[in-house]
Amino acid sequence: ELKVEQNPLFLSMQEGKNYTIYCNYSTTSDRLYWYRQDPGKSLESLFVLLSNGAVKQEGRLMASLDTKARLSTLHITAAVHDLSATYFCAVASQETSGSRLTFGEGTQLTVNP
Amino acid sequence: GAVVSQHPSRVICKSGTSVKIECRSLDFQATTMFWYRQFPKKSLMLMATSNEGSKATYEQGVEKDKFLINHASLTLSTLTVTSAHPEDSSFYICSAILLAANIQYFGAGTRLSVL
Q1: What Rg, from alpha-carbon coordinates, does chain B have?
Q2: Whole-angstrom distance, CA of residue B112 vs CA of residue B103
């Protein structure tokens, strides 16, 4: 059974600071996703990481994937209040249907002025 | 703009009634759609995989007769919560896969409140 663990689950940070959210998964995967969810809203796709060493950046967010370590990171640079949201990583397992995603518990990020 | 449309966004119903939620892929065909349930401040729990033209595949612990799924066309899947009870109150989210982009797009979600 594929397990996906995120940490931290709760993150409160000051504007302008940097921080990293970690996503560990238990079995081989060829795709990892990062999503953002605002309160009461659905999920917004942020990044799709498809290969070992993949790095993608959008604005103040950068995601990377290390398939050997089964680890993905979401790095936040110079945080701003608008980044406050819950961030989920999700992994598609090679052992099951390639489209089936297993989600991490989510990291609730609060950026304080 | 949204690539997956989910309707309705909010439903309040009496206990014992049935509620239908629609999920449509816009501008692309989706042979596979997914239905998730999310409790407050929790992660998404996959309920079932909806396959066009065939029976849905349900996750362990999800009652097939309680949560009826129909995927009659390449752009539409429906989830019907039958004889809803207060414990069925939750946020339900559907998704569809855009194969060309290898991305799973999510609908806006449906908040179901059963009184």
Answers
A1: 13
A2: 26
Amino acid at B108: A
Interface test with A, best of B36, B103, B104, B105 (most A CBs within 10 A): B104
Q: What is the pLDDT at residue A60? A: 97
Q: What's the CA gap between A28 and B70, in Å, rounded?
A: 32
pLDDT in tens, A59-106: 999 999 999 999 999 999 999 999 999 999 999 876 555 578 899 999
In degrees and rounded to multiples of 5, residue A58 shows phi and psi of: -145, 110
Q: Which amino acid is at B92?
A: Y
Q: Which of residues 19-48 of B touch A (CB under 8 A)?
A: 32, 34, 41-44, 46
Look at residue B106 in the predicted model and tell me its pLDDT.
Answer: 92
Least Cα separation, residue B91 to chain A (angstroms) = 9
Chain A residues with CB within 8 Å of chain B CB = 31, 33, 35, 40-45, 48, 50, 88, 90, 97, 99-106, 108
The CA distance from B35 to B72, in Å, is 15
pLDDT at A33 exceeding the cut of 90: yes
